[in-house]
């Protein structure tokens, strides 16, 4: 299977991590290589806040999850395997589908969404 086909599968699986939150947020982009969610309007910040996105890049597929940047304590207890996929403070990069790690990301996104909705 080509890298591009692998990346498409990875993208679809990571997009599925974010899709459950779309009904309470604004989908800013939903294309073949980008899925982007903004949260609700924040009185505190006086704008809609970026929640997360998935993007196919040249060498990997990235999932950005802003709540882990805003609330770094959400990362306490993540597996060393997931930590290896982190780049920066809120980005996770993958080249292949990793079901266990994607399940862990889904739980992290759920905790992040709950906190994001409550505190922004």
List the helices and strands and how they pair.
Layout (H helix, E strand, L loop, with lengths): L2 H16 L7 E5 L3 E9 L4 E10 L4 E5 H5 L9 H4 L2 E2 L3 E4 L4 H21 L1
Antiparallel strand pairs: 1-2, 2-3, 3-4, 4-6, 5-6
Characterization of the model:
The protein is globular and about 45 Å long. Strand 3 (47-56) and strand 4 form a beta hairpin. The model has no long low-confidence stretch (mean pLDDT 93). It is an alpha+beta fold and 120 residues long. The chain has a single domain, classed as Aspartate Aminotransferase, domain 1, CATH 3.90.1150. It has 4 helices and 6 strands, in the order αββββααββα. It has a 6-stranded antiparallel β-sheet. The protein has helices at 3-18, 66-70, 80-83, 99-119; strands spanning 26-30, 34-42, 47-56, 61-65, 86-87, 91-94.
Helicity level, as a percent range? 25-40%
Do you know the CATH architecture? Alpha-Beta Complex
- The total count of strands amounts to 6
CATH topology: Aspartate Aminotransferase, domain 1
CATH class division: Alpha Beta
Question: How many H/I helices?
Answer: 4
If you compute it from the alpha carbons, what radius of gyration comes out, rounded to the nearest whole angstrom? 14 Å
What is the count of structural domains? 1
Q: Which descriptor suits the 3D outline? A: globular
Q: Could you say which structural class the secondary elements and strand pairing correspond to? A: alpha+beta
- Average predicted local confidence, pLDDT: 93
Q: Uncertain runs with pLDDT below 50, 5 residues or more?
A: none
Strand content: 25-35%
> In angstroms, what separates the terminal alpha carbons?
42 Å
Q: Widest sheet: strand order?
A: 1-2-3-4-6-5
How can the largest sheet be summarized?
A: 6 strands, antiparallel
Please provide the ordered H/E string of secondary-structure elements.
HEEEEHHEEH
């Amino acid at each position: 299977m080509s890298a591009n086909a692998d990346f498409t599968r990875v993208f679809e699986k990571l997009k599925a991590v974010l899709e459950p939150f779309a009904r309470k947020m604004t989908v800013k982009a939903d294309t073949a290589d980008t899925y982007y969610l903004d949260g609700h309007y924040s009185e505190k910040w006086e704008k809609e806040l970026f929640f997360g996105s998935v993007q196919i890049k040249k060498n990997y597929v990235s999932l950005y999850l802003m709540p882990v940047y805003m609330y770094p304590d959400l990362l306490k207890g993540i597996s060393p395997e997931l930590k290896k996929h982190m780049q920066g403070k809120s980005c996770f990069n993958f080249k292949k589908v990793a079901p266990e790690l994607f399940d862990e990301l889904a739980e992290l996104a759920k905790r992040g969404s709950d906190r994001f909705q409550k505190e922004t």
